[in-house]
Amino acid sequence: MINLKSTIKLNDLLHLSDLKHVKINFNVSNGEEDPLEVYKQNPDAINHGWLLHKGNSGNNDFPVGTTMVGLVRLSNNPDLWLLTTVAEITESFPATDAVGYKSHDLAEYAAYYGRVIVHFHNQAMTTNRWAESILDDLTVDQILPEVLQDDAFPGYENVRLSYAQLKQVIDHQKPDWIAALENQKAVYLITDTSNGKLYVGSATSKENMLLSRWTTYVKTGHGGNEGLKALTFEHIQQYFQYSILENYNSRVDDDTILARESWWKKTLMTRSFGYNQN
Where is each GIY-YIG domain found (predicted)? Predict the structure, then answer.
């Protein structure tokens, strides 16, 4: 880790200029869940859930067009925050005590998400503050060498990875994950979080098991699938999510896996409404 505290301001990295339309969202525990732990398991639950919460009053905290800088508090220090997203608010809709906005994560800042730790003492009660009055007080404490996440493999039934998280697993050869995936056959699900479309695939001995199959997705985005080739790599990197429907050990016959893959395609209707073309 590089110690940069008090030497570099957060905006030295972000270069945000129109501060009248930038808000900082400080995300803290709701008394039941720690947002940092939620983020480790599923960044989208924070960036497209917690951060877009509209309070009981239904006030328009984020006007459409606002740039939102999302931060979650680190558990061990109330003045340290993890940068999880920089996003543009694209839609606001009526909501009471629920998510009331849609947002678009800004890809130009993606290298900082989950890596930049910010130092700031938030003396105000509000968790949403206009950047114009406080941005100069947010300083970079550390830049982590990789995205902060829970390294432990959560079990096959609890796998839900964004493209960025899957890439971290593959690029850094996370031991728990590699051991769990490298000799495993599976039927898996890819979800396009921008539109809800699904793709069902399988990993058999022909594909050299699940680890090899998912490594191909990290490298190419589409994994050779015709239904995914029409999408840009940038779209896949931003919106794709990977999970496991069924897992099998290496001794199970490939035909069994393929039959289950076909069953899931029919059940989820991914040939009619998703990305499967076969």
Answer: 183-277
Where in the chain is CATH 3.40.1440.10? 156-273
Helical ranges in 125-231 per DSSP H? 131-134, 163-171, 175-181, 209-220, 226-229
- Is 251 strand, coil or helix? coil
Which whole-number Å values give the CA distances from 226 to 168, 229, 231, 268, 277, in the listed order? Answer: 25, 5, 10, 19, 7
**What single DSSP character describes residue 207?**
G
Dump pLDDT digits (tens) for 235-244: 999 899 999 9
156-273 topology per CATH: GIY-YIG endonuclease (3.40.1440)
In whole angstroms, give the CA distance from residue 80 to residue 113.
15
- What digits encode the pLDDT tens for the residues 192-211? 999 999 999 999 998 889 99
> Residue 35 and residue 83: Cα distance in Å, rounded?
12
Give the pLDDT score at 96. 56
More confident: 115 or 37: 115
Residue 99 near residue 27 (C-beta atoms within 8 A): no
CB neighbour list of residue 142: distance below 8 Å, 6 or more residues apart: 1, 2, 3, 4, 5, 116, 117
Q: How far apart are CA 40 and CA 164, in angstroms?
A: 12
